[in-house]
From TrEMBL:
One Gene Ontology CC term in the entry: cytoplasm
Protein name (database record): Jacalin-type lectin domain-containing protein
Jacalin-type lectin domain location: 627-761
Biased composition (Polar residues): 48-79
InterPro entries the UniProt entry points to: Jacalin-like_lectin_dom, Jacalin-like_lectin_dom_sf, Metalloproteinase_M10B, Unchr_Zn-peptidase-like
Disordered as annotated region, ranges: 29-100
Amino acid sequence: MLSKLKLTNLRRRSRQSLNVASEIPLAHSGARVPDPHQWGSDDAANGVTITPGGSSPSVMSAGTAWNDSARASISSQQFVPPVPPKPNLEEPPGEDLGSPALRRQSTYINPHIPITQPAQPFSPSAPRILSISDGSWAFASVLLVFGQCGPPDRPQDGTVIVHHHHGGFPPTSWPVSDGFFRALVYLEPGPNKLQFEYASSRTTPLSKSQMTIHMMPLAAPPLHLVILLGKDSPATFDCPPDKIKTQGNGLDTAVKKFRMAAYLWQAYTAEEMAKNKFGRRTFRFEETWTAESISHRDKMPRMVPKVHVLRSERTVAEIRDLDIAQQNSSGKKTGELWNIAYQAVEKHFAPKTAYERKHVAVLILDSKWDPASNVITGHAALGGGSGFIQMGIFGSHSLHTWPTFIEDVVPSFTDCTRTDTRIIANDAGQSGSYWEACCIGIGAFLHEVGHAFGCPHQPSGIMVRDYIRINRSFVTRESYSTRTKSPGLRLCMPKDECHWHRLDILRFRFHPCFKSASDPPFIFEGDNPQVYGVGVAAVIVSSTGAAWVEIYVNGTLQNYYEVFPKVERNLTVSVSDILSKVPPAEKSRKIKLSVFTIGNGKLDIDDFLETAQSFVKLSGGEKAYQSMKLGLGGGAPSEAILPIGTNRVLNGIRVYSGSALNGIEFIFDDSSSSIFGNRGGSCSEFFLDTRRGESLLGFSVRSGFWVDGCDILTTLGRRSPFFGNSNGGSPYTMIPPRGYRIVGVSGTVGQWVDSFAILYM
């Protein structure tokens, strides 16, 4: 009985203890007291926006009275960023999520989470970020922001100071021009709580605002940075004497400048992608852990882009040979610098397969201005690729004008110091001042990197020569231009910036180097679309769907149209629609279409009108359509026709092959046959189940210069073994469009089949 009584008392005391504990004020329940040494600990007193938990931003009045428990509650939440929704890279999410290729892109879309709005500062003078919303996601270490501060009706100059997450990066200051500013913000993986302070001669005290940006590095193949030296190079670059004293011109300085320029490329491209509603996806770099940083005041070890320093097998004299200088109009081997760089890069990285494909930006450090010949030796501005290397190369003649650290970005893009052509180059006659040389150097190099990513020259933007005003993306006031002989813009707004062309943006959206964690797995062999003419139109068949179509006449881009975000695996392109998109004077000329797919595939239709109307007259007088041919051809014509309008039935198919496809023979139920090609190599048979109505659907073919082999596809979903070389060429699926059936095959045959097409009605 005593034990039961004690247990009862214990239970009652426990219940009372809980009741008492629930009445204890929050200030005495273990709430964290704000640290006065951390920035923002006095934000409540200054009227700064506070975003507790995952709720919407709230405003605190500076005159509001708070008791100790309330202050402790607010402070304990103030430094804990909200748990963010997972990133949705597409803005808006208008993609067809029913597509297998795109279904995984819906992983980060949560309809129950409200859209985050920009943090609204309490003071009308406090900085307001216009380019990105509070709680947004970024995917690179440096974020480019555009904002406004001060009273909107009284624009004024001043300075914005950016304080980084937990003081983990030195504060940086950025000029305000007529109330607008641009800033580069360093981010670390995870949530980054940022504070922006505005100061001007008319504003006291400082006006502040805060926002949280979440950074998640992309999981994609990187862009590699390479500095190329001659085998006997002293590892220095062209630089005026005064700058040699202040910043140096050695390899260490070159690495820092190259790294900073690469960060500018990355941040600029991310903003361009965001402006085009594709989120802030951008390319990433191969990184390394080092004590170096992009701030001269930062000594903390960080992950930074790795710069490979490669020694060429050529000497400095060979690299600076006038005969191979790209700008030498009388040079005999002006493309040789590309070969020199390619050999060094290929030897260092040694990629063997498409999975190891490398994208590389190469800075030639031994470039040298030659005043006597008026040529920059050791310099070439080239981009493209072959094999498993995609590469852009550029000289170092303007490197002395590039920023070394993040604090140097604005000074570098506003430096009016005149170029002394007795010592350094005035590239293209458009680098008469240091800031203009900086634009040409960083912008033209980015142009070549664009070629490495597959971008051709465009009507406008970075891929023409729009990069001469790339400074406007990083500053708000432009300096005097020696190129135009006029003062620069007083205020550089987004409409005044240079841009990536929309077609470049589309290429980046589906490029493997811009892949995000929410994208479907990338197929490195790519998607190889096919085209089938049907008289008044052509049908583009793709396993992932067409993304956009470009229209060319005489090699000049005339128009384009987008299909994405719709998923059209069988895209019908009518002749009348294409002609309506071409100028009247060009309609009688040969029209070329380039079709790009969601799976990073591409199809060039050299003569669209001929392809759409590609009739073939069969031996019985019937007309059939012919698909595009695989292989280069060159052999004797050959064809095999299936029965049309008779009672004969296709029973089976014999395939003759060895290291390539030799021939295909159709076997009918009356023991007759029809052969395409020859009977060389070994013979394999594949029979159809005619009792169940099985018939020939098409072929899966591997082809390059010739046809390596194929397997057979049937209407019951069966697939034969592969006949021939299963590792040769590229894969293609040849099936007639919906509503049509295969009636034969045709092509050309030499020692083996060197071109192949299907016939259909």
